[in-house]
Amino acid sequence: MIYKERFFKVIRKPHSSEKASSLVKKKNTIVLKVAKDANKKEIISAVENIFEVKIKSINTLIVKGKISNIKNKKKHAVRHEDWKKAYITLREGQNLDFINGSE
């Protein structure tokens, strides 16, 4: 059993991109940035308890951080931090809309 405080640490924020918005329309799938140490069971229970929706399936992946050079200091490359992304498919009839909100 996960404690309620952990629910809000597991889910970071919704991920918005062209691919994510097309998945919402076509396959009823939402994309979230989640804690890197969170497993699938924690993510499922956090989403179901916070947003009160039922989940059909979940896929997770770790996005590797980009390496970028600083213009003035070409000798030093900066590596951005890795982060974890979760593709969450909701069951039929379930809806979760981050963009428009509830009106």
What do you see in this structure?
There is one protein chain. By secondary structure, the protein is α+β, with helices and mostly antiparallel strands. The chain has one domain: RRM (RNA recognition motif) domain (Alpha-Beta Plaits, 2-Layer Sandwich). The chain is built from 3 helices and 6 strands, in the order H-E-H-E-H-E-E-E-E. The strands form 2 sheets. It has a 4-stranded antiparallel beta sheet with strand order 1-2-6-3. A two-stranded antiparallel sheet has the order 4-5. Helix 1 (4-10) crosses helix 3. The longest helix has 12 residues, at 40-51. The chain is globular and about 55 Å long. The termini are far apart. The model has no long low-confidence stretch (mean pLDDT 85).
Fold topology:
Layout lengths: L3 H7 E4 L3 H10 L1 E6 L5 H12 L3 E9 L3 E3 L7 E3 L3 E8 L13
Antiparallel strand pairs: 1-2, 2-6, 3-6, 4-5
Helix pairs in contact: 1-3
Overview features:
about 100 residues, globular, 6 strands, alpha+beta, Alpha-Beta Plaits, about 30% helix, four-stranded antiparallel beta sheet
Overall SS class:
alpha+beta
Pick out the low-confidence regions.
Answer: none
Radius of gyration: 16 Å
Range of strand content = 25-35%
- At CATH's second level, what is the architecture? 2-Layer Sandwich
Q: How far is the N terminus from the C terminus? A: 33 Å
Percent range of helical residues = 25-40%
For CATH, the homologous superfamily is named as RRM (RNA recognition motif) domain
Q: What's the shape?
A: globular
Number of domains: 1
Order of helices and strands: HEHEHEEEE
Major beta-sheet overview = 4 strands, antiparallel
By DSSP (H or I, 4+ residues per run), the number of helices equals 3
Q: CATH fold name, please?
A: Alpha-Beta Plaits
Query: On the 0-100 scale, what is the average pLDDT?
Result: 85
Top CATH class: Alpha Beta
What spatial order of strands do you see in the largest sheet? 1-2-6-3
Total beta strand runs: 6
